[in-house]
Design goal:
Number of helices: 7
Number of domains: 3
Oligomer: single chain
CATH superfamily of the largest domain: Pseudouridine synthase I, catalytic domain, N-terminal subdomain
Shape: elongated
CATH topology of the largest domain: Alpha-Beta Plaits
Largest sheet: 9 strands, mixed
Structural class: alpha+beta
Helix content: 10-25%
Strand content: 25-35%
Bound molecules: uracil
Length: 240
C-alpha cells in the first residue's frame, strides 16, 4: 500500500475538497490515536493500523479503499445512479457518493427486488464475483402469480431454455418448489431481469422476488431490511 498525503486520502473518502480537509486539520478535528494531525501533507499508509487509529471528529474514519459492504435491500430502491427515484446509495453516508475509487454495486437488483446486495470499490473483486467463470451462484425466493408445475424444474435444469431476445440458452438452474406459488431458484449467471424473464419464458409471472444468498453468503438474520454492514474476510470467503 502506497503512502498518500492525508488531504488526498480524506478527499478521496469524500470528506471534502482538500481545502476543507486543511480546515479540519487546523481545527484539530483529525486525530490519530487521539493526537491531532495538523499537517495535511503528512503521508499516511492506508493500512489496518491507520483504519483503527484515525478519527475525524472522534468518529472512526470510513473504510479505507478496498472494502466491500453488504446491504439488505428493500424493494422500492434502484441501483443505477442515473435512474429517477430513490437509490440504494441512500442507505450509506452521503459522502460515500464522493469516494474515489467509487463504490459500485456488484451486479444489480431490480427496483422491485429485495435481498442481498453487495457493493465494493475494488474493481478486481467486483469482476471476480460477477465473472461467469467464478461460478458464484445466486439464490432467489420467488413468488408467482400462477401455481408452478414440476415441469418447470426440468425446463430450468435443461440448459436449453432461451429467454426472449437472447441467442444463447441459459445455463442449467436449480428450482425447488416450496408451495404452489413459492419457489427457490439458484442461477449461475446474471442476465438482465433474469429470474423474471425465466418465469415469463414458461408462462408464469413473478409477483415478488427476494435474493436470499450470493454464493454461500446469505442475508444475515440480524441484518434487517435497509441495514448494511462492512464485509469481513469470512463473509468474502463464504461468498466466493
Ligand atoms: N432477476 C431479476 O429478474 N431481477 C433481479 O433483481 C435479479 C434477478
Amino acid at each position: 500500500m502506497k503512502p498518500m498525503r492525508m488531504d488526498r486520502l480524506l478527499a478521496n473518502l469524500g470528506y471534502g475538497a482538500r481545502k476543507q480537509i486543511a480546515a479540519l486539520a487546523r481545527q484539530g478535528r483529525i486525530t490519530r490515536n487521539g493526537t491531532p494531525l495538523l499537517d495535511v501533507r503528512e503521508k499516511l499508509i492506508p493500512d489496518a493500523d491507520l483504519q483503527s487509529s484515525l478519527c475525524i471528529d472522534d468518529e472512526p474514519v470510513d473504510p479505507l479503499p478496498g472494502f466491500a459492504v453488504m446491504l439488505h435491500k428493500p424493494t422500492g430502491f434502484t441501483c443505477s445512479r442515473k435512474d429517477p427515484g430513490r437509490l440504494v446509495f441512500e442507505f450509506f453516508p452521503e459522502r460515500w457518493l464522493r469516494r474515489d475509487p467509487a463504490l459500485s454495486p456488484v451486479g444489480r437488483l431490480d427496483k422491485d427486488t429485495s435481498g442481498l446486495l453487495i457493493f465494493t470499490d475494488d474493481g478486481q473483486l467486483n469482476h471476480r464475483i460477477t465473472h461467469p467463470r467464478s461460478h458464484v451462484s445466486k439464490t432467489y425466493l420467488v413468488t408467482l402469480d400462477r401455481p408452478v408445475t414440476p415441469d418447470a424444474i426440468t425446463r430450468f435444469a435443461s440448459g436449453t431454455l432461451k429467454l426472449e431476445d437472447d441467442d444463447t440458452p441459459l445455463l442449467p438452474a436449480e428450482l425447488e418448489i416450496l408451495s404452489d406459488h413459492q419457489t427457490r431458484l439458484v442461477i449461475h449467471e446474471g442476465r438482465y431481469h433474469q429470474v423474471r424473464r425465466m418465469f415469463a419464458a414458461i408462462g408464469n409471472h413473478v409477483t415478488a422476488l427476494h435474493r436470499e444468498a450470493i454464493g454461500g453468503l446469505s442475508v444475515p438474520a440480524d441484518l434487517p431490511e435497509g441495514n448494511w454492514r462492512i464485509m469481513t474476510p469470512t463473509d468474502l470467503d463464504q461468498l466466493l
